[in-house]
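Bumping with the actual sequence this time:
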Amino acid sequence: MTAILTADELSFRYDPHTPLVERWSARFDAGEVVAVTGPSGRGKSTLLYLLGLMLKPRGGQVLLDGAPVHSLSDARRAALRAGDFGFVFQDAALDPSRTVLDNILETVMYRGGDRSGATRRAEELMEQFGVGLRRTAKPGQVSGGQAQRIAICRALLGRPRVLLADEPTGNLDPASSDIVVGALHEHAREGGTAIVVTHDPALVARCDRRIEL
């Protein structure tokens, strides 16, 4: 197996007296879906932000293809996030002022991608996730479950190598959850790695392995 992403003794704290992540190490290989589980407040979401280069660790390092990337400049880390990482946040994090389609296209447009090609792929993803008819709606006009599926379309649009998802099935019915889990494994089969924070035992059971915090 080839490690795409590696955490090497990561440490982080918001409160100087209370470590949230302490000397934590793991590797994430191409072709796998990994569940990260643990009690609320243990730092699972923070860990995703560290792995996704949105936070800098206080100690340790994050390596992409064996090269340290955690200490790069803000601009370089932002470019890596746009090109190599896809994010599904727990609250979907959609821009309420933009249409569903424009929300999905956001990351590809940020890195200067081709809009027509990106639009075609976005439309395919929207159909796959059952939100194709909502492309001109605003986020306030869709349900919570639809918003989460739209966020997953956005995360997958650029075919990222690393997919980070925070409770991706939390607002979904069983049928929609099946679609999401299938997409996670399809992403892995195409050579990516998916790291999923979840409390959902059904999702954990369908991942390739589990890491308990």
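The tokens above came from a reply further down the thread. The mean pLDDT is 91.
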